């Protein structure tokens, strides 16, 4: 008996729960039982919009085969056709299957009914996602882009996947062509069209350059550098009019970006806004909408250049990454946090209209006929296991390739990590060469900040904006605190009577102690804004004022561990034996140092040349888990905005 609603398959009185994606693969095979289904087709149907490999589908098939072997009837439930794909080998007629001896007659009509429901759900999901269309399907390294004023041509900077070099490309949806190479580029590269559509303003590294094109827009006829400042960094550059541009500019000695107007002829700069800390802006005639950060509060403000005054201000507690004007001046569309789109009216309450849990959305722009353009960044990460001070590491023996946030347990015998291989984020455990899934979330969640209890029996981590605890002994979990924005769990105290979390709202950081009995809270530490904090085994380590004092809080008392700690240190992590950190010095940025909690000695424990990628966690035995991107894609998409706005307009 197959029950898609509960993801359960029953054999001979035994019920087996499977992962949602395994069930989805089975249902797709049943629905297409009259033909062979390729792996690529399964990936497209079950993991639409998610970057996965063929091994992901093959693993689901392997799980199903192992499960169906319990029937012990000698029948081939899933047939394999080499280099072609798979086909269900048993028709979904439960009267003929030697499983679930009881309830045969009921199961006979339940399965077709469930299949109809599933098919309607698949149809509805396809209908919901059919608005999205990839632009330039073969381009997977789009660094940035800009729509021509006629909205029919796209200019974009393409990054060479094998180097850090880039090139400018132009084209409609069918025939892009390269028009200029621009050498080394950083992730902050930007490009924008002039109002007359004949020039491109390109911001690469510390230079802003104008490329003049011919009338056919297929050849660059002139190139001029309009701004080059070694002591400044830029984040965004857009044309204001034919003779001026707006840029966000940051001096190295200052911590925030300010908005400036740049005269493209005289190259003179003038400050536009009194607000400091402008992270993004969008132009609409003489109106400037901009994002202003004030501590951990984010404002979307609108400033009238003609009236020289602010006319709107919307407040968010989430990070606002990008904004764009709607064509009918009804307000703005905003990219909030990592994966959400909001409508922000000039007056009224903001409303979420879309969520992209599977990818990081960047650079939203509005095209013709209310088409929304955006970049989607998706990465596949792989975990590697090695020993500190040894040059090489080995890949973990698993088909789970999208792996993140690995943390060793207190004894260094196993580690927990997050994987999105099955389409939904789950916490897994790696121990003794075996991978085991712990959580069973049925919807996509953002999981981060894994912490072990000192006895290794519990995990504390972030689920979206909630703090969640999972028991390895009971194989169950529950939410401890809900809607704790801008927070990070720091683990349990040694007796598991409390747990701690770091609250970064406002101008001061605070560490709270929360009772597991009644969730009552008590503030135990007040720290300066952006204080570096790590934790392990019920202890909290942080850098004090001036960043050259290392403290440990044991739940009761603050202990000064070192009054001459390096002032250019960045804390990495901690375990029962040491605190680990980087030094921000040329030539040694990726060396990981340890401060031994017993001897107080400092030494390099993971040399920078001994690994690639990122060091995620170090065990007491100095075993190291590394994380490395094995594939990163940045693709340009568009979708109709009208379906997203429909609920908003009613």
Automatic annotation (TrEMBL):
Q: Which residues form the OmpR/PhoB-type domain?
A: 1-90
Q: Which domain of life is it from?
A: Bacteria
Q: GO biological process: what's one of them?
A: phosphorelay signal transduction system
Give start and end residues of each DNA-binding region.
Answer: 1-90
The molecular function GO annotations come to: DNA binding
Under which name does UniProt file this protein?
OmpR/PhoB-type domain-containing protein
The organism encoding this protein is Saccharobesus litoralis
Q: Write out the entry's keywords from A to Z.
A: DNA-binding, Membrane, Transmembrane, Transmembrane helix
The record's InterPro entries line, in alphabetical order, gives: 6-blade_b-propeller_TolB-like, OmpR/PhoB-type_DNA-bd, Sig_transdc_resp-reg_C-effctor, WD40/YVTN_repeat-like_dom_sf, WH-like_DNA-bd_sf
User: Membrane spanning segments where?
Assistant: 106-124
